[in-house]
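Pasting as-is:
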Amino acid sequence: MKSILAILLMFSFSLMKAQTTEILDTIYANDTKNVSLFFPEPIRQGITGSENFVFTYNREKEQYFGLLQAKPGKESNLLVINRNGSIFSYIVRYKAQLSKFNYFIPLSHSIGNERPKGTEPIQKELAKDSIDNKTFYYEKFCAYLLNKREYLGRNTSRFDGVILRLENIVFDKQELYFVIQIRNNSTLDYDLNFLKFSIETRQKGKKKSVQRLPLDPNLIYNLPSKVEKNGFARFIYVMPKFSTSNNRRMILELNEKDGERNIKMKVSHKYINNPN
């Protein structure tokens, strides 16, 4: 009888403890302290909804924690995706005086998974440290990115009805994936001659000069030879990882075959150094 009573008491205590567990939904941060967030799986992606909140994590080597800082302003949100696809979403607010600096987030706080049940994540299926066929991995990951609708800033250039848009820059392993769209709103088909990437360095001083260093892609995925009138095409350039300083910028040059509808786009270093 005593043993049954002890079991019931232990069960009641566990139930009360579970009921009083705080469900994390708001995280406070400021601009003088680092707030640490520890996740059950390594962080693959972290995005804040406002520029007055900054969430930093290791983009080169996946780790379990990230750091949050905030400047005074309106509340925003933080979205974090773990390596296994688990999604975590929180309200973030600025607070001058903080009472908590470390958050240990359990898997039970995940709001879902970015992939449907029954499908294997690309990272688990393909991304192995000793992968032999890089081209196969690149193509699979490119196909995955083209199925997503995610945008990084507003990088658009246009000429005579032809629009060149840099939709997204995604960092994965040691590569940068540039998701690009060409939209042809003109009444003539657009025959593509080439699209080149380069880094432009601007030398200041009395003798101003500009130097360009071409960038060679590891892979070009789904690049069209023609964009029909009133049509569009989306494709990806896979580049080795690189970064730029504030006196350098990336240049995209789109050239029309047997035509003059050529477009040049300048991409700031802030987009290159802060990919998705």
